Amino acid sequence: MKVIRIKPTRNHGLNAPINIYQVLSWIVNLFNIIISSLILIPTMNLPSKIIYTILYSTTQIISIIYAYRATICDPTDPLLLSYREKVKRGERPEAVSYQAFCTICNCNVSLKAKHCGQCNRCVDNFDHHCKWLNNCIGQKNYHLFTQLIAILEINMLTITAFGLTQLCEYYVNYDEYVDKVSDISSSINPKSFLILTFIVTIEAAIIAFLTAHLLALHVWLKMKGMTTFEYILSRRNKKQKLTQVGDAKDTTVNIGDHEISYNYTEPPKTPLHEKKSFPEIITEEQYAGGEEIDISKLHTVLSPTFSHNTERTTENVFN
């Protein structure tokens, strides 16, 4: 008997496990807020203080809002969500025509839906899996993602520009700079302020450069009418011949450490709901304790957050 453990589905970016890159983004943002509030702003002249406070505060607040909305958004394919709701209520899936069928979710999906191995779900109009948000970017949150990187670019350029100004201020008007530091605390060494200003400026400049590259890529992809996933496939297609989407073979593509499966356009010969052995009902409580399930009896799972197909190999599904 072959026994497996079911991998849970991530509905949004705050579902466990939290990605290390996601935590790193929180730390960097917190660091920038602290340095801006305690180091940069206090050492600026009045006009610079006003301009920087308005620009930085506005872009920082907006970026946090966009990041949160893009993270908690569930970009799962609507057909898959509808299927899970019916299974949850104990209803048989109806015999309907569909564009594509995911052999992992065992469900009808949209033609441009892709299965993310990291989140274990099909995403409508899949673009890519963002490790910084710990979530897939698809139809529902793509506009939030692009707005996020645009406002983040302005935020990082603001820090970089004013950080460079303060570094110049240290050497050009040293006495005035020291007086401003002394007003904050007489026990603080001005060089400590200089070092922290240098660190936050370099960090912001690097992020601004990378974000600009990412933003330019998505502008170009938008003009071409392509997704990031399709772009990666087109590049790989120049080096090797990819299996056709309509082939009756398993087709997967690895983006980093995330396995993505692009779905079949041809329906299976026997639809899932017409199989003689109708999916056995398995409650979610069985998964809570990590109960082992007999794969020979498992077709689908009675849960809105778990699904599996026996036609796929264990290695492909659960890596």
UniProtKB/TrEMBL annotation:
Q: Does the keyword NADP apply?
A: no
Q: What is its main location?
A: membrane
Give an example GO biological process: protein targeting to membrane
Q: What PROSITE patterns has UniProt attached to this entry? A: DHHC
Signal sequence residues = none
What GO CC terms are in its UniProt record?
Answer: endoplasmic reticulum; Golgi apparatus; membrane
UniProt keywords (A-Z) are:
Acyltransferase, Membrane, Transferase, Transmembrane, Transmembrane helix
Q: What family does the entry list? A: Belongs to the DHHC palmitoyltransferase family.
- The name of this protein is Palmitoyltransferase
